[in-house]
From TrEMBL:
GO MF annotations in UniProt: hydrolase activity, acting on carbon-nitrogen (but not peptide) bonds, in linear amides; peptidase activity
PANTHER family, alphabetized: L-ASPARAGINASE, N(4)-(BETA-N-ACETYLGLUCOSAMINYL)-L-ASPARAGINASE
Chain positions of site Cleavage: 173-174
Residues reported in the UniProt entry to bind substrate: 202-205, 225-228
UniProt keywords, alphabetically: Autocatalytic cleavage, Hydrolase, Protease
Stored InterPro entries: Ntn_hydrolases_N, Peptidase_T2
Spans traversing the lipid bilayer: none
Biological source species: Taibaiella lutea
Domain of life: Bacteria
Protein name: Isoaspartyl peptidase
Length: 307
């Protein structure tokens, strides 16, 4: 058995605000990313390489708030975060507040594999990226007219905005993937452009191992999407692992406890995807929707947006 699952963000996703054409674009983007990761697994590749391939595909799609589709910060720039973790040996790599890096998930992987560190940020991370041949793109590559309108609206009201399209359509468009390979190993990866009009070098849960990303072959691999501050305070990804390891509950039970009860208690909104070493997949979210997809070696697959 091998399998992959991904998310493209959670939040308040109103059906009447997403027309048929736009919905198909999102579904096609998720299918392409699922297929990219599944191909790695099907060819005997590792779960780590599979989640990287899936997240890289989402980073290259302007519909999602990561990589090319990253939102604008207060300065009108793109500041991106990413992380990944290998459940086999619990190695991890993470990066925060980098600019012009085409695929932050590749930089996180390079940090894990080519340095003695786990977490790098800002200018230093960019220097490391250039040293190791990570691709950069000019500002124009990341420019998107729709994202720019979001930025101007947020700037006019001096508010930090969660990624959204119109009033009432509130989304946390972090992207992520989890996978199980043929060898029984699981991994997770997450990437984001953060919040529109974010200030002061704000960093959410995405690059924080244990908060937004976690993987351990003993239990599960988890990638989160939501209001990052609350996910950090709840240490969401690691908490799912702890529920399974120390309470002996199933993957589904652990995810439901953390997302539908513990997070809700502190008014945390969003969701997560998770996988265990048996190939069980959980999609848990306390918002009205979450962009998500999966594919298993038993032939089952699908993408969905609404609950």
């Amino acid at each position: 058995m091998f399998a992959i699952a991904l998310h493209g963000g959670a939040g308040t996703v109103e059906r009447h605000l997403l027309n048929e054409e736009k919905q198909k674009q999102y579904e096609d983007g998720m299918k392409a990313a699922v297929d990219a990761g599944y191909e790695v697994l099907n060819n005997g590749g590792s779960s780590l390489d599979a989640v990287v391939a899936a997240v890289q595909s989402l980073e290259d799609c302007p519909l999602f708030n990561a990589g090319k589709g990253a939102v604008f910060n207060h300065e009108g720039r793109h500041e991106m975060d990413a992380s990944l973790m290998n459940g086999l040996n619990r190695e991890a790599g993470a990066v925060a507040s980098v600019r012009n890096v085409k695929n932050p998930v590749l930089l996180a992987k390079a940090i894990m594999e080519k340095s003695e560190h786990v977490f790098m940020a800002g200018d230093g991370a960019e220097i490391f990226a250039k040293k190791h041949g990570i691709a950069f793109e000019p500002d124009e590559y990341f420019f998107d007219a729709f994202r720019y309108e979001q930025y101007k609206a947020a700037l006019a009201t001096d508010r930090v905005q969660l990624d959204h399209s119109v009033a009432g359509d509130r989304k946390f468009s972090t992207v992520g993937a989890v996978a199980l390979d043929k060898y029984g190993n699981i991994s997770a990866a997450t990437s984001t452009g953060g919040m529109t009009n974010k200030k002061f070098g704000r960093v959410g849960d995405t690059p924080m191992i244990g908060a937004g990303t976690y993987a351990n072959n003993e239990t599960c691999a988890v990638s989160c999407t939501g209001h990052g501050e609350l996910f950090i305070r709840q240490v969401v990804a690691h908490q799912v692992h702890c529920m399974m390891k120390y309470k002996g509950v199933s993957l589904e039970e652990a995810c439901e406890q953390v997302v539908m009860k513990d997070l809700v208690e502190i008014e945390g909104e969003g969701g997560l995807i998770a996988i265990d070493t048996k190939g069980n997949i959980a999609f848990s979210f306390n918002s009205s929707g979450m962009y998500r997809g999966y594919k298993k070696s038993d032939g089952t697959e699908g993408v969905a947006i609404y609950r």
